Amino acid sequence: MDRVHIKKLEIFANHGIMPEENTLGQKFIVSVDLYKDLRQAGRTDTLDTTVDYANAAALIKQVSEKSVFNLIEKLAEEIALALLKKFSVEKVNVIVEKPWAPVKLPLETVSVEIERGWHTAYLSLGSNIEDREGHLKAGIDALKESDEIKVTAVSKFIETEPYGNVDQDKFLNGCVEIKTLMTPEELLRYINIVEENEGRVRTIHWGPRTLDMDILFYDDEVVYTDNLKIPHIDMQNRLFVLEPLCEIAPYVIHPVLGKSVMKMKEKLSRKNLY
Fold first, then answer.
1. What CA dihedral angle connects 224, 230, 234 and 235, to 10 degrees?
2. N or C, which end of the chain is more exposed by having fewer CB within 10 Å?
3. What is the rounded CA–CA span in Å between residue 151 and residue 122?
4. Handedness of CA 241, 243, 248, 254 (dihedral sign)
């Protein structure tokens, strides 16, 4: 992807473990790459189609000077997040150099380098208690409240029969597409809090719930831990997931099965006819 470079921006700030570093301050050197498709900027020659590097440099300076951090790792993280939230870029690479690091040995500089960016994830939502539509909309609103999540597509809600435990009311189901700065584990923790805030109680497996949110896809990553399975381990067998997901992401490929959402939906629909 195209990139805008800001190299060797010098900043005087107060970061470090040693007390004198926090009080006297020292020089830091910051370099960033901002990843963005610059074709339109090259065609139109207009500033709003690229990254205003003057504003980006000013933001880096502001972030660096407004707080005191022990670690340059923390400084790099805060710079990356600030740039991603303010500018329309897909990812950033940040290098923070500390040329006056107190290591008592001759060196040119100490530095850290990180890369952070927006990730595409798909979530399923379901509810079969009380105001089902209200719970789903509250869940979507809670996603929008996070400055590390952008809701980019929402499917229609469909009414479906309960899955697994059939002795309960019908569900209302939907799917959303999001862009997020969170890792899969951070996203899972966030949606679990959203569920709890809507009164979710985990007592019966596949039982009634006010709000159920699952991570279906996260980029094309495969995650398999005790607490998290991505892609969702049973989504290919759930028409109530595939139908709304197909509305907003028909051509997304399952990274394990190698089939698109549309193909999985068509296969399961044919199976349910017999």
1. -170
2. C
3. 10
4. positive
Helix (H, G, I), strand (E, B) or coil at 123: strand
What is the b/e burial string over 35-57, where b = at least 16 CB atoms within 10 angstroms of the residue's CB? bbebeebeeeeeeebbbeeeebe
pTM: 0.91
Element (H, E) at 125: strand 119-127
Do residues 150 and 179 make contact, with C-beta atoms less than 8 angstroms apart?
A: yes
Catalytic status, residue 98: yes
Q: Which residues contact 246 (CB under 8 A, 6 or more apart)?
A: 261, 262, 265
DSSP state of 49: G
Q: Give all domains of the chain, ordered by start, each with its CATH number.
A: 3-117 (3.30.1130.10), 119-272 (3.30.70.560)
Catalytic residue, from 66, 86, 91, 98: name it.
Answer: 98
